[in-house]
Amino acid sequence: MCTTFLLTEIIREFSELDVIGYPRLVRLNPQIPWKTRGNAALSVALGRGAGQKTLVGNIAGRDVYAFAKGKHAKATGEHMARAESLLEKWAVRGEKMTNPGLVIFDGRPPAEFYWRAVREVVPIADARKLASRGFYAARGNGRGLVGACASVAWRPRDRTWEVIAYRARKKWGTPRRLVPRSVSAMDRAFPSTFNNYDHVEDKVVLMPGSPCPILFGIRGDDPRILPNAMRALKGEKGDRWFVFESNQGTDDHLVEAKVADVEPFSSATVRGVVASEPRTIPGGHVIASVRDSTGEIDVAVYEPSKRFREVLRRLAPGDRVVVSGGVRQKPLTVNAEKIQVVKLAKLVRKAANPRCAKCDKAMKSEGRGLGYRCERCGAKSPLGSGTFEPIPRALTAGWYEPTACARRHLSKPLKRTRRNLGRLFD
C-alpha cells in the first residue's frame, strides 16, 4: 500500500513515546527486479526525548515533535504485537509484490548492511538472521525485512529531507488537485528544495501517479523550511504531514567501477572514452559504447529522458566521459542517470582537396582510404593532405542530467553539487 503512511500510523499508535530524531525514509537498490515502485524503507526511534524538540509532523490536528536526543524505549513483545496489528490492517492482500517486513531493534545494526542493500542484492536469509537480534515479523517471502533492517542500519554520509502530505481517506484513488503554477512558484521561492517541477517539460513532479495516500512530497536540503514550502502550495489540502530524513538525492547507490567489473543489478560510475557513433534505436532510445582499459560497455538513454538523449546523441568517438547509472542485465548496459563530458575530441572535416604543386590544379581522390592524384601531370599526394576545418561541437564539457520528471529517487541532482554544468547548443 504505502510504507510511509504505515509509519505515520505506527507513530500515532505509540503516542505515549517520544520521537527521537527525524523519522527516516531510505531508498534501496533501484536495480532490484522485484522491488516495489519506489523501493522505500522506513524507520523511527521511539523513547523518552531530551533536549531541543522540533515540529516534524501533524496527524489529524495533533502536532508531533522530534527530540534531538533521548533514551530509546526497551523493545518488548507487546510493542511488536501492536506494530504487527497495524501491518495486518494496512498491508494490501493478494499483491504479488507485497512482502512486508517489520523489525524492532534495541540498537542499530551494522551500517554495512545498509550499504549492501542500497548497492547489491541481499539474500532474505541474511536479513532474517539480522532481524533475529530483535523482534520481527514478515509476510509473503519476507523480502521486506531487507528494507526494514537497512533503514535502521543507515548512518548518513549525506542526507536530504522530504515533507510528505497525505490525503484524506475518502480521496484515495481519486485525481489529485494542486495548482501547477503554485508548484512552479514554490520551486523558485525555495531554492534549497529540488525535483518539484520540471520547467523544461512544464510538468508537476512532486505528486505520485499511483492511487496511494500521498498527496505530494517536497524534497530539500533544509528541513526547517519544508513546512513553509508545503504551505505555499495551493489546491487540495492533506489531513496529515511528516518530515522525513532521507538518502534521496545522495548517489549512495553508485559505485566507481572498471568496465570489466560492472555487474547486473548494481549502479555504477564508469570512466572511459566513447568508442562508437551513437545510434538511435526503435522507440527513440539512444545507445553508444564506452571503453576503458578493461573493456567496452553500452550506455543507454531512454526516450522518457527526453532532451537528455541529446547529450549522448551529440557525443563522438574519442570523447572522454564519466557515466553514472543503473546496470541492465541483458544486454549488459549502463542506463545513464548522469553524464560528465570530460573532454571533447577535436573533429575536423575536409574543406578542399590538395592542389598540385606543379599545376596548381585541385587534385582528385584515388578512392576511399587512398591519396590524391593530379589528372594533368600525374603527381600524387598522400591521404590527409587536403585542407581541413574544425567541426563545431553541439555541446560543451561539463555535467548533464535528465530534466526533473525523469530523475531517479537516489540520483543526486546537479543543483546539490558544485559541478561545472555543460551546455547543449541547438
Could you give a short description of this structure?
The chain has 426 residues and is an alpha+beta fold. The chain has eight helices and 24 strands. The longest helix is centred in the N-terminal third of the chain and has 14 residues, at 77-90.
The global form is elongated
CATH topology of the largest domain: Alpha-Beta Plaits
Q: What is the name of the CATH class of the largest domain?
A: Alpha Beta
Tally of individual domains? 2
Which CATH-level-2 architecture of the largest domain?
A: 2-Layer Sandwich
Judged by helices, strands and strand pairing, the structural class is alpha+beta
Secondary structure: number of strands: 24
Mean pLDDT across the residues is: 95
Sheet with the most strands, sense and barrel status: 7 strands, mixed
Give the radius of gyration. 27 Å
- Helicity level: 10-25%
Which stretches are poorly predicted, pLDDT < 50 over at least 5 residues? Answer: none
Number of contiguous helices: 8
- The termini sit apart by 44 Å
**SS strand fraction:** 25-35%
Which key terms come to mind for this protein?
elongated, 426 residues, OB fold (Dihydrolipoamide Acetyltransferase, E2P), 2 domains, 8 helices, Alpha-Beta Plaits, 7-stranded mixed β-sheet, 5-stranded mixed β-barrel, 24 strands, alpha+beta
Description:
By secondary structure, this protein is an alpha+beta fold. The chain has 2 domains: 3-246, Alpha-Beta Plaits (2-Layer Sandwich); 254-346 and 393-416, OB fold (Dihydrolipoamide Acetyltransferase, E2P) (Beta Barrel), CATH 2.40.50. Helices cover 17% and strands 34% of the residues. The chain has 8 helices and 24 strands. The strands form 6 sheets. Strands 1, 2, 3, 6, 7, 10 and 11 form a 7-stranded mixed sheet that branches. Helix 1 (3-13) packs across helix 2 and helix 3 (111-119) packs across helix 5 (144-153). The protein is elongated, with a radius of gyration of 27 Å. It starts with a helix and ends in a 26-residue tail after the last strand. The model has no long low-confidence stretch (mean pLDDT 95).
